[in-house]
Write a structure and sequence with these properties.
about 55 residues, little secondary structure, 1 helix
């Protein structure tokens, strides 16, 4: 469940897969036990992430 304080713009939404080994995050639980939304299970790995920002 997500809370928004303004209009939601799905085209501006994004993220990185929390199970990406490149992040090296110890979540202190088995990834198979994590309860994720369908949206969050579809995020790409960091190596595959295409940034919407220009530098």
């Amino acid at each position: 469940q997500y809370k928004c304080d303004n209009y939601y713009a799905p085209q501006s939404d994004g993220g990185i897969a929390i199970t990406d080994p490149a992040l090296n995050i110890d979540w202190h639980l088995d990834p198979s036990e994590a309860i994720l939304s369908e949206k969050d299970t579809n995020h790409p790995l960091l190596a595959d992430f295409k940034s919407p920002f220009t530098f």
